[in-house]
Design goal:
The structure is a single chain. By secondary structure, the chain is mainly alpha-helical. The chain has a domain of 208 residues: Metalloproteases ("zincins"), catalytic domain (Zincin-like, 2-Layer Sandwich), CATH 3.30.2010. 65% of the residues lie in helices and 5% in strands. It has a 4-stranded mixed β-sheet, sandwiched between helices. Its EC number is 3.4.24.-.
Length: 316
């Protein structure tokens, strides 16, 4: 259901972009808008991971690092990636007191994960595993590409809306595109199109976070550690630990496991992330269901009855 929702929202975002182009310049404007979007997405596809990692000053680390916390972080991430059938990602650390993490890259073969120094110092090893399993789930689901595309199109719509505000009143197609009506239409595009794009982008972000929580719990084999980690990260993110780079680059906020910007998250139209308490409740329900299945699975094994594959709990 989350995948279907994502595809529909992406289609809607693309249609909105082309419609704005049509209202500004007719059929020609729509084609120019489409070419512009394709060019921006091509650039983002090849360079998004490099740009984001450079923005946050991410430093690549490996198993030879002298700090035990970082060594364990690398070892566990590599082990979970292998068990999830993923290539080894680039593993990086960002210097930030705010505990947080994100994943980036156009596909699993070019993926990178990042954890802040604050996260490594705050959480237990099991909780760090849960967080990084969540990020690996984003890689496995190719969410890093989806979020790059949505951010690029949303940004292009905002740029197009600004163009409409300044030039939208000049088009006169078949005698009814210019004048006062054209100017009013341009103003409406300038105001409404960026808002609509932002709402769609946020809706996609929220859907992908729930899915990454579910898959991440499976990769780590532990939903409760991820739930505890989310609660701790949320408390520190809202407790005065500012992420300076994120505040300067708010368009990247959707990439993090918890919204790094000041303010409170909620499951509403204007939030980039689901409410943390909703995510925690879903993870705890998943843990209870997995625990309830274990006795039944053990009984089935002892009676030599073939087992069917496990399902995904509250998300199935």
């Amino acid at each position: 259901m989350n995948h279907f929702k994502t595809y529909m929202l992406l289609a809607g975002l693309t249609a909105l972009f082309m419609a704005a182009g049509f209202l500004i310049g007719g059929a020609t404007g729509m084609m120019i808008a489409l070419v512009f979007a394709l060019a921006m997405n091509a650039f983002s596809y090849w360079n998004a991971d490099k740009i984001v990692l450079r923005t946050y000053g991410a430093v690549e680390v490996d198993e030879s690092h002298p700090e035990p916390l970082i060594r364990n972080y690398v070892i566990d991430t590599v082990e979970m990636a292998r068990s999830a059938g993923l290539p080894r990602p680039r593993i990086t650390v960002i210097d930030s007191a705010q505990p947080n993490a994100f994943a980036t890259g156009r596909d699993p073969d070019h993926a990178a994960v990042a954890a802040s120094t604050g996260l490594l110092q705050l959480l237990t090893r099991e909780e760090i595993r849960g967080v990084m399993a969540h990020e690996l789930a984003h890689v496995k689901n190719r969410d890093t590409l989806v979020m790059t595309v949505t951010a690029t199109i949303a940004g292009a719509i905002s740029a197009l809306a600004n163009f409409a505000f300044f030039f939208g009143g000049s088009r006169d197609e078949e005698g009814n595109g210019g004048g006062l009506g054209g100017m009013i239409g341009a103003i409406l595009i300038a105001i409404l199109a960026p808002i609509a794009a932002m709402l769609v982008q946020m809706a996609i972000s929220r859907a992908r976070e729930y899915e990454a929580d579910r898959i991440g719990a499976q990769i780590a084999g532990d939903s409760e550690s991820l739930a505890r980690a989310l609660q701790k990260i949320e408390a520190y993110a809202r407790g005065g630990y500012e992420n300076v780079q994120a505040e300067r680059n708010p368009a990247t906020a959707h990439m993090f496991i918890i919204n790094p910007l000041a303010g409170k998250g909620a499951d509403n139209l204007f939030s980039t992330h689901p409410a943390t308490h909703n995510r925690v409740e879903a993870l705890m329900r998943l843990g209870v269901e997995r625990g309830a299945r274990r006795p039944a699975m053990a009984a089935a094994t002892s009676s030599s009855v073939p087992l069917s594959g496990e399902r995904g709990g509250p998300w199935s």
